[in-house]
Design brief:
- The complex is a heterodimer of chains A (293) and B (319).
- Chain A is mostly helical and 293 residues long.
- Chain A has helices spanning 2-9, 11-59, 62-66, 77-107, 112-126, 129-143, 150-174, 178-186, 191-220, 223-226, 248-255, 261-292; strands at 69-70, 73-74.
- Chain A has two domains: 2-59; 62-292, MetI-like fold (Orthogonal Bundle), CATH 1.10.3720.10.
- Chain A contains twelve helices and two strands.
- In chain A, a hairpin with a 2-residue loop joins strand 1 and strand 2 (73-74).
- In chain A, helix 4 (77-107) runs antiparallel to helix 9.
- The mean pLDDT of chain A is 90.
- With 319 residues, chain B is mainly alpha-helical.
- Helices cover 71% and strands 3% of the residues of chain B.
- Chain B contains 13 helices and four strands.
- Chain B has helices at 2-11, 13-36, 39-42, 72-103, 106-121, 124-151, 167-192, 195-203, 208-219, 221-237, 240-245, 264-275, 282-311, and strands at 46-47, 56-58, 61-63, 68-69.
- Chain B has a two-stranded antiparallel sheet. A two-stranded antiparallel ribbon of chain B has the order 2-3.
- The two termini of chain B are 31 Å apart.
- The mean pLDDT of chain B is 89.
- Classes of the chains: A mainly alpha (293), B mainly alpha (319).
- Chains A and B meet through helix 2, helix 4, helix 5, helix 6 and helix 7 of A and helix 1, helix 2, helix 4, helix 5 and helix 6 of B.
Chain lengths: 293, 319
């Protein structure tokens, strides 16, 4: 006991204590800053969702779902339909090629071409969506004379979604045990049979998750559609080219700048529909993925 | 063998579409590229010329009298808004990642991480809407005037503070859009660091925070660099949110941090209608050149990021 009292008086010991106190204070400050950083994210997230929820629900009336846009008012039926049609159309185009690319990258993963696909997919993700929209405008809307049309919109969104579908497919396929493939090969199955009977069925839940997430992206995109889909206040005519299509994200962007309250209300209603469609799809897809693990 | 070749044909659509995008933009903007030369990236004036004038021929390219296309202002706007976004997003992302990986117990970590990933799923135009309806009135009327009073002695923070549309607002919105990418990737990387390192640090008497800060974080340095570059690429090309909050200034170099700006991506959307007024088509082709420059920059930045991330051993990085 007297030993402890003596060591406390030593200058070395006092310095050690000060240093320890400083280190503890530093740790405390560090943890606090980290919590604040996370808190900021949480507040921003909550704020955005709350705004969309409160103002969106306030703007949701039955006419939003039953009528088309008329001038600065009316409903959003045309936009809801357009968003769904564009989403389905672009998935029909993107899924075969995206899954095909992912399958090649996973099944023949050591070939040069697989490496090229992987790299190109990663680079394509980095191409700004507005650039894809301008590409669609230059080649299809102008070049092929399709004007603003469903075809131009779907092809542009399909290109945007290709790399996401490819990479998630490849990731899902790479988790299929090698032994299963080897067993199939040993039984005399060819590469095609292994792909269709072993790889794709086993990885199907993961692949579907990727496709769902890509669909969510197509619902939430705006920039590539402005130049390819145009905007229409009427229901889809069933034409693939030369007839513009309305979509929800356009309503958000265009109607919030209108000086009319009715138009602003439509913008908030559209924001509510888009946000919760996208979030529900994302949550559903991720929960499905979590449950399997 | 036949299956493999068929599959390669289908798979080839992906690389082919990337090449087509860049290729067609290059071909389409070729007359503009030749006409504008280097002046395109150093000129500060974007002027369609006299749209009622008779088109004249220069260097074999028909143009409107007085037309000139310089996008230095846009490049500056793009770079500055991205820099502000990174300055805000990197510290926040690192802090949030440490909090998620080290301070929160397992079950709760799953749900809180989920929240961060949901933020990444919110569409860009909704961020724009929030910026327009909530952030701009708040910043323009309350925050910017105070910032000007407190920090006004630093030239870039000096007034006038404007209406809230501008560089800093765009930077804040952009930072919220890239933070989830940084936080989620870094959280995974921190969790994947070997336990032995932490135990060794603890055995040497380090506090838990010192372990994280001096042992774990240096270990994920390369991943942090890679994902920061990746986030840079995303911020450079972000369109809708910036379009809605940046003020879309034309031919105007920002004198301070509150000033309205425009970025390359937002400019392409805001200017197409007026570019179509040019009967010679040179304006639309010059816009294609903006798209080309933007995609070359983004692809370059992205390729560097992927290279760094591959090298750091993070396979199958988040897309």
């Amino acid at each position: 006991m007297s030993g402890a009292a003596m060591t406390a008086d030593l200058p070395v010991e006092a310095a050690r204590r000060t240093r320890l106190r400083r280190r503890r204070a530093g740790a405390m400050a560090g943890w606090t800053l980290c919590a604040v950083a996370f808190g900021l994210l949480g507040i921003a997230m909550g704020w955005i969702l709350l705004m969309v929820l409160v103002r969106g629900v306030g703007a949701l009336t039955p006419t939003v779902f039953t009528e088309v846009t008329q001038g600065t008012g009316g409903g959003l039926l045309n936009a809801i339909e357009g968003t769904v049609v564009i989403g389905i159309g672009s998935m029909l185009l993107a899924v075969p090629f995206g899954v095909g690319a992912g399958l090649y990258a996973a099944q023949f993963s050591h070939t040069m071409f697989a490496r090229v696909i992987r790299f190109m997919a990663d680079v394509l993700v980095g191409v700004p969506s507005i650039v894809l929209g301008y590409f669609g405008y230059v080649t299809m809307v102008e070049g092929l004379g399709w004007n603003f049309s469903l075809a131009a919109a779907c092809i542009t969104i399909a290109i945007l979604c290709l790399p996401y579908i490819c990479r998630t497919t490849e990731l899902a396929l790479s988790q299929v045990p090698i032994a299963m493939q080897e067993a199939a090969f040993a039984l005399g199955a060819g590469e095609g049979r292994v792909a269709f009977r072993i790889l794709l069925p086993t990885a199907m839940p993961g692949i579907l998750t990727g496709i769902l997430l890509a669909f969510a992206i197509s619902v939430g995109e705006t920039a590539p559609l402005i130049y390819t889909a145009g905007w229409s206040s009427y229901l889809w005519t069933g034409e693939i080219v030369r007839s513009p299509v309305g979509y929800l994200t356009y309503a958000i962007w265009a109607f919030i700048n209108e000086p009319f309250a009715a138009a602003n209300q439509l913008a908030y209603a559209a924001a509510f529909l888009v946000t919760f469609m996208v979030l529900l799809i994302s949550i559903g897809a991720r929960l499905a993925l979590l449950r399997r693990r | 063998m036949k299956f493999r070749r068929l599959l390669a044909l289908i798979a080839g659509i992906l690389p082919a579409s990337l090449i087509a995008v860049i290729g067609f933009l290059a071909i389409y903007s070729w007359p503009a590229l030749r006409f504008n030369g280097w002046h395109f990236v150093i000129g500060t004036t974007w002027n369609l010329g006299n749209t009622y004038g008779t088109p004249i021929l220069r260097d074999g390219v028909p143009m409107l009298p007085g037309a000139q296309y310089g996008i230095l202002v846009l490049i500056v706007g793009t770079v500055l808004s991205t820099v502000i976004a990174l300055a805000l997003a990197v510290p926040t992302g690192v802090g949030a990642a440490i909090f998620l990986a080290e301070a929160v117990p397992g079950r709760m970590r799953l749900w809180l991480s989920f929240l961060v990933e949901l933020l990444a799923a919110v569409p860009s135009v909704v961020f724009g809407l929030w910026g327009y309806a909530v952030l701009i009135p708040l910043l323009g009327q309350h925050v910017f005037p105070v910032m000007e009073k407190v920090l006004g002695f630093i030239p870039i923070f000096a007034g006038p503070t404007g209406s809230g549309y501008g560089l800093l607002t765009a930077g804040i919105v952009l930072s919220l859009m890239i933070v989830p990418l940084i936080a989620a990737t870094l959280r995974d990387a921190i969790l994947a660091e070997p336990m032995v390192l932490r135990e060794a640090a603890a055995a040497l008497g380090a506090t838990r925070f010192e372990t994280v800060w001096k042992v774990v974080l240096p270990g994920v340095r390369k991943i942090l660099i890679g994902v920061t570059i990746l986030a840079t690429g995303r911020a450079l090309g972000e369109t809708m949110a910036v379009l809605m909050v940046s003020g879309n200034a034309l031919n105007y170099l920002p004198p301070n941090i509150y000033s309205p700006v425009s970025t390359m991506a937002a400019f392409i959307v805001s200017q197409l209608d007026s570019a179509l007024q040019d009967p010679t088509g040179l304006a639309v082709r010059s816009l294609a050149e903006v798209a080309l420059v933007l995609s070359v920059i983004s692809v370059g930045v992205n390729a560097v990021a992927r290279f760094v991330l591959y090298r750091s051993g993070l396979k199958g990085a988040r897309v």
